[in-house]
């Protein structure tokens, strides 16, 4: 984890907070609630208005300016504009039922009908928790844990308008400016203060289109126009819980999921009262190909390798065994880093030579 945070330049310091985080911090202060500094992968003085569309200055240390650059510098080739259709297998696995020998892919450009195969000693699926299970299932893998145990960090969103005139003018800037998430409040449990918080309150990154889709039930064109004219001074907050309930994903664009009673209670505790309009969302997806000590407990082993096919690894948030309760970026990248380091050693030792 230390290697990952160093590569991403993670810091908890923030020279100037954006409009939404100012509102969150001030509100918590007025209510006597604690506010935590949130670690982020950008410099202390970074104040950007487009990070959720792509940081214009590359100050935000995302994968496009860190890990992918490292990979290319070491000889990796990145093929864009294509989609993996299915994994390729043979039946001569030495320690598994079968062996993965590559992937069949196609161009997303409909004018290019030809498909292509990529042969490899090792194949890694890093499609995320919503797309890795469909790829594995459509390729013929049958492990019952694939697609199950899906956690979504369910969230409720609320918002409020703060005019740039009068008392609320103390909040500087606009909703899309500043660091994405620099402040957070952990909703304390009812009894033991050392137990996990019931919920986490943070600020989301919402562009105009997302806001237009999420703002309240539709009333009229005039109403939505009025709301969108207030977009730049509308503060959005979300309450996120570490879900105990789980769902399942087996095909693209279709999931089944249910909140547990405890999840609903924790959400209500985060909002203090849920008796107003709010929108259910998912903050992060994880767990749908979880690690397990045995084949009946997980889709992959502790090294991220499929229980059914040797040479096939999963290296994304789907391998996490449960919801983590906070932004999982560092956890996912640290897990991927460990899997990759172990895999590199195995390749160097010739363990996957055909």
From TrEMBL:
Start and end residues of each Glucose-methanol-choline oxidoreductase C-terminal domain: 279-336
Record domain Glucose-methanol-choline oxidoreductase N-terminal: where: 1-154
Species: Chenopodium quinoa
Family, similarity comment: Belongs to the GMC oxidoreductase family.
One of the Pfam families matching this protein, by short name: GMC_oxred_C
Protein name, entry field: Long-chain-alcohol oxidase
Alphabetized UniProt keyword annotations: FAD, Flavoprotein, Oxidoreductase
GO molecular function, one term: flavin adenine dinucleotide binding
InterPro entries cross-referenced by the UniProt entry: FAD/NAD-bd_sf, GMC_OxRdtase_N, GMC_OxRtase_C
């Amino acid at each position: 984890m230390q290697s990952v945070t160093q590569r991403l330049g993670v810091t908890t310091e923030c020279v100037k907070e954006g409009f939404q985080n100012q509102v969150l911090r001030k509100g918590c202060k007025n209510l006597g609630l604690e506010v935590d500094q949130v670690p982020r992968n950008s410099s202390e003085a970074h104040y950007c208005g487009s990070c959720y569309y792509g940081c214009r200055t590359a100050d935000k240390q995302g994968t496009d300016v860190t890990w992918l650059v490292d990979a290319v510098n070491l000889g990796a080739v990145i093929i864009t504009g294509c989609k993996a259709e299915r994994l390729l297998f043979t039946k001569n696995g030495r320690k598994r039922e079968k062996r993965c020998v590559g992937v069949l892919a196609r161009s997303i450009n409909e004018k290019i009908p030809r498909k292509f195969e990529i042969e490899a000693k090792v194949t890694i699926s890093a499609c995320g928790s919503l797309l890795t299970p469909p790829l594995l299932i459509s390729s013929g893998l049958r492990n019952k844990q694939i697609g199950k145990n899906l956690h979504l960090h369910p969230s409720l969103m609320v918002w409020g308008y703060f005019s740039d005139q009068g008392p609320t003018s103390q909040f500087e800037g606009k909703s899309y400016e500043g660091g994405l998430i620099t402040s957070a409040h952990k909703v304390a449990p009812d009894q033991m203060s050392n137990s996990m918080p019931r919920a986490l309150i943070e600020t989301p990154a919402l562009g105009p289109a997302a806001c237009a889709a999420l703002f309240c039930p539709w009333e009229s064109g005039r109403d939505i126009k009025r709301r969108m004219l207030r977009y730049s001074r509308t503060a959005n907050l979300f309450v996120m819980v570490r879900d105990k309930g789980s769902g399942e994903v087996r095909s693209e664009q279709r999931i089944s999921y249910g909140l547990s009673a405890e999840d609903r209670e924790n959400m209500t505790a985060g909002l203090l009262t849920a008796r107003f309009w709010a929108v259910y969302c998912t903050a992060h997806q994880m767990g749908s190909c979880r690690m397990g000590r045995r084949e009946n407990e997980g889709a992959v082993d502790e090294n991220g390798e499929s229980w059914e096919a040797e040479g096939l690894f999963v290296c994304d948030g789907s391998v996490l065994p449960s919801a983590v309760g906070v932004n999982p970026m560092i956890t996912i990248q640290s897990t991927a880093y460990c899997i990759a380091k172990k895999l590199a050693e195995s390749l160097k030792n010739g363990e996957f030579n055909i």
